[in-house]
Write a structure and sequence with these properties.
CATH class: Alpha Beta
Helix content: 40-55%
Distance between the termini: 33 Å
Mean pLDDT: 90
Number of domains: 1
């Protein structure tokens, strides 16, 4: 998916380590094998149990990753939501807030 690749490239350019998954099954596999601090999840992810299954797997991780749900709709319990289409600058601001909630990020 071109949008996923562009987002991943933009995050990498900002210094983030990115692991991509094109399906719910791939996302669950990543969550079960690699440490994940933040999960950007498309609510419409194909395959397996969909976004619900990925969220369940994420909540089973210790520590559980922060979750950003990309959606055309509002709200999901326990997740921050970003509207699609995703604007990279908005995503980066949300990631910074989630990963550094005290605002102690070095300038």
């Amino acid at each position: 998916m071109l949008a996923r690749c562009r987002i991943a490239d933009g995050l990498r350019a900002e210094g983030y380590r990115v692991h991509e998954a094109s399906s719910a099954d791939e996302a669950v596999a990543v969550l079960s094998t690699l440490p994940v601090h933040l999960l950007l999840l498309d609510k419409a992810i194909p395959g397996g149990a969909g976004s619900h299954g990925v969220l369940q797997a994420a909540h089973g991780c210790r520590p559980a990753p922060r979750v950003i749900l990309a959606s055309d709709e509002a709200g999901a319990a326990g997740a921050s939501v970003i509207q699609k289409p995703i604007v990279l600058d908005e995503l980066l601001a949300l990631i910074r807030r989630l990963l550094d909630p005290a605002g102690t990020e070095a300038s």
